[in-house]
Structure prediction request, 290 residues.
Amino acid sequence: MKALFMSAALAAVLAAPSALAAKKEKVVFVEASAVADKPVVTLDTTKAYVMLRSDIAVPLHLMRVPDAEDQAKYDQLRADSLTEAKEKYVRKARNYERDMASWEKYPKGSARPPKPEKPVEPTDGNFEFVPFGLMTGVSIGPLFRFSKGSGGDKVSTYVHQLTPGTYRIYGMMSVVPGGGAFGSCFCMGSVKFEVKAGEITDLGRFVARELPKRDSSDNAMPMPLGVEYRLPVAGEAADSRLAALPVRPAKLKPVGKLPNYFGMTIDRFPATAGVIRYDRDKIVDLTAGN
Prediction:
């Protein structure tokens, strides 16, 4: 699948807090890493873990859902960055006035240089700052598998360590270092789940499904997603190295729409019994009473 890269505008937004970070201690909302394929697995009781299984090479991207503490830190980061942008604007405005005065001295009708561009004063309403989700992405798979089935069992298991909290599945996609991504986003509807310290949260599995046949002349996009999702089952057999560790099924809850930050194919999380379905473009929560 062809990689789709972020626009220059989004790249600029992502770079916006770099100067601020140089002045202040960097705020890290999520620390994440793949659990290595080793003979013995030991959990860090201060970290949470998520497990995903699939019979295909699946890339899954999570984004943290901010809690009250996260939101307060994010709001402060944005406020500090806005203050910095306003300070820069004062200098830009002063330079603009100087450049305009010089430009207006050119005789009318002469070959004048381009007219200086007036800077836009940053306000709380027009200031662009990195969205929280882009600060907290966690990519799982298709590389760094924890284990791979043998013989007729082709199911791969991925185990990831991450900061405890709540996360949403943003899409079946991989983010490329340097500002790109490929895959599709569940921007039109998805699910969230909580991961707790000292536990492995079983996220269930994605399995390949047979795609409906299409006429050779049908080149409509997007192509249907060739996977289906299956809920985790309590006590379901997993890798033997995890047998003695606390593993619990994820409790999925529907979560609203998000922007297509990476400009990818737009999709939505598969309708899942007891969790989520769709009424045209409306998300229907099926978890009441569960």
The radius of gyration is 24 Å. The longest helix spans residues 68-104.
